[in-house]
From TrEMBL:
All residue ranges annotated as the Phosphoribosyltransferase domain in the record: 57-157
Pathway(s) annotated for this protein in UniProt: Pyrimidine metabolism; UMP biosynthesis via de novo pathway; UMP from orotate: step 1/2
Family note: Belongs to the purine/pyrimidine phosphoribosyltransferase family. PyrE subfamily.
Protein name: Orotate phosphoribosyltransferase
Enzyme class per UniProt: transferase
Keyword Glycosyltransferase attributed: yes
Free-text function comment from the UniProt entry: Catalyzes the transfer of a ribosyl phosphate group from 5-phosphoribose 1-diphosphate to orotate, leading to the formation of orotidine monophosphate (OMP).
Gene symbol of the encoding locus: pyrE
Keywords per UniProt: Glycosyltransferase, Magnesium, Pyrimidine biosynthesis, Transferase
Reactions this protein catalyses: orotidine 5'-phosphate + diphosphate = orotate + 5-phospho-alpha-D-ribose 1-diphosphate
Entry-linked NCBIfam families: pyrE
Length: 179
């Protein structure tokens, strides 16, 4: 099996949790994809970096990140996966709100102003979190080239309606789940 198939197995074995849950969007579901069980796993995280870098290899960007917390391990995995390549990436973290102390930065890490960046998320249902990150990135002067997620729960239309290209490594159908 290749990286894409190996990562799908980690997701279906470790991250898909069955039972009634309320999503961050406020919607209810009979199952939940808890990707932190995979994004923070010692064998799965390197796969995430490689799969997401492959997914977006034809997009031109030099930094990756998104709204904390879901995007952080995805961006970190991509940062590490790219380190030994001819296309190394920086990573950044978008806070939900600006800091009231220190440098009062909303985006942590290397400066994104004037740079082409990719907004990422582990999974997205409505696109709300990743679009919040996109707004903050644009306010900071970044050129957002697109949005990529590990698992799409339905956010594609909202992201595309905001004028951004959107890609997902896996759909719910890929994971044997019904929306």
């Amino acid at each position: 099996m290749g990286d894409h198939d190996d990562l799908r197995k980690f997701i279906t074995d470790l991250a898909v949790v069955h039972g009634r849950v309320v999503l961050s969007s406020g919607r209810e579901a009979d199952w939940y994809v808890d990707l932190r069980r995979v994004t923070l796993h010692h064998r799965a995280a390197p796969l995430i970096g490689r799969v997401m870098c492959d997914l977006t290899a034809d997009w031109s960007y030099d930094a990756v990140g998104g709204l904390t917390l879901g995007a952080d391990p995805v961006a970190g995995a991509m940062l590490h996966a790219s380190a030994g390549t001819d296309r190394p990436l920086d990573a950044f973290v978008v806070r939900k709100a600006g800091k009231a102390h220190g440098l009062q930065r909303r985006i942590e890490g290397p400066d994104v102003a004037g740079r082409r960046v990719l907004a990422v998320e582990d999974t997205s249902t409505t696109g709300g979190s990743v679009l919040t990150a996109v707004e903050a990135l644009r306010e900071a002067g970044a050129d957002v080239v697109g949005v990529a997620v590990i698992v799409d729960r339905g956010a594609g239309d909202a992201v595309r309606a905001a004028g951004l290209p959107y890609r997902a490594a896996y759909t719910l159908a890929d994971l044997g789940l019904v929306a």
